[in-house]
Design goal:
With 293 residues, the chain is α+β, with helices and mostly antiparallel strands. Helices cover 24% and strands 28% of the residues. A 5-stranded mixed β-sheet has the order 7-6-12-9-10, covered by helices on one side. A 5-stranded mixed β-sheet has the order 14-13-17-15-16, with helices on both faces.
Length: 293
């Protein structure tokens, strides 16, 4: 039974070391480390990393660990134990039990952007809550940039569905930066109840023509709905697409998916539409009010 427990401890330590190595967070001054040597309980210890980046270790004196991952620190201690003739085949595990208080930055579309103290890893949802939560104009595709040398970027989709948002909730580490970008907007202009811009804040960050027109309160009874058009700016110029809105509402034509910055124009009566073209519609969209509710 003792041998089985020791084997399980070894496997757990190796797995923990591998997990730590996969993470980019490095050991720094002030961190508290838990060090274990397989089958040698008298060498187990907890140590705080000094300002110089060192820890004391039995039979070795001081070991420099700052700037290493826990797995790299464990490997260095193993080499030192062998070189010093203390052990032939040491199996060392290193875990960070507590990180020194550091700042994580939260930028972009949150109510209180700024830097927040973290003394350990926290779920991204918790960090966003510390920053006051998302604004009405927040895109839900959130980027976490790691503070390690690789500057790894983790993209997290903050779903409107609570179960989904909490099931895939990555960690934010001290030193990381969380960026919440501005959501994409589509515009509905012309003879509708509430002309303006509407954020694409549906759960899948997508929107269709009929959904956008519904958000704008639908067309007024004076509108020439049959002459509606979609105006889209492309790398090759302005594209104007005729929209059979009436047929789409009746299910005779498929609804059309929108792209960020698309403009739907629902015309007024014929006389009020003389001279209206794609460029003029795009110019109107640039100054349109944006509705967030």
């Amino acid at each position: 039974m003792k041998n089985l427990c020791n084997l399980l401890l070894l496997l757990f330590g190796i797995a923990a070391g591998s997990l730590a190595q996969n993470e980019s967070l490095l050991i720094g001054p002030g961190d508290v480390l838990h060090l274990q040597v397989y089958d040698t309980p008298e060498m187990e210890q907890r140590a705080r990393v000094t300002d110089a980046g060192n820890i004391p270790f039995s039979f070795l004196g001081t070991v420099s660990v700052a700037g290493l991952t826990p797995a790299q620190a464990a490997e260095q201690i193993q080499h030192r134990l062998v070189a010093a003739g203390v052990m032939l085949h040491p199996q060392v595990t290193v875990r960070v039990e507590a990180y020194a208080t550091q700042n994580a930055s939260v930028m972009g579309q949150v109510l209180k952007p700024g830097t927040y103290e973290l003394d350990t890893s926290r779920k991204v949802v918790e960090v966003l809550a510390m920053a006051g939560g998302l604004t009405d104009m927040a895109d839900r595709h959130i980027t976490i940039q790691r503070s390690g040398p690789t500057k790894e970027k983790v993209v997290y989709y903050y779903s409107n569905a609570a179960a989904t948002a909490l099931s895939d909730d990555p960690l934010v580490y001290p030193g990381d930066t969380v960026v919440v970008p501005r959501v994409a907007v589509v515009y509905v202009l012309g003879d509708v109840l509430k002309p303006g811009g509407y954020p694409m804040i549906t759960n899948n960050s997508k929107m269709t023509v009929l959904q956008a027109i519904a958000l704008a309160g639908y067309a007024n009874h004076t509108a020439a709905v049959g002459n509606s058009k979609l105006v889209r700016e492309t790398p090759t110029g302005v594209e104007e697409i005729n929209l059979p809105v009436g047929a789409m509402q009746k299910g005779k034509k498929p609804d059309v998916a929108l792209l960020p910055d698309d403009v739907i124009y629902v015309p007024f009566s014929f006389l009020r539409n003389i001279g209206i073209n794609g460029q003029g519609i795009l110019a109107s969209a640039a100054s349109a009010v944006i509705y967030t509710h």
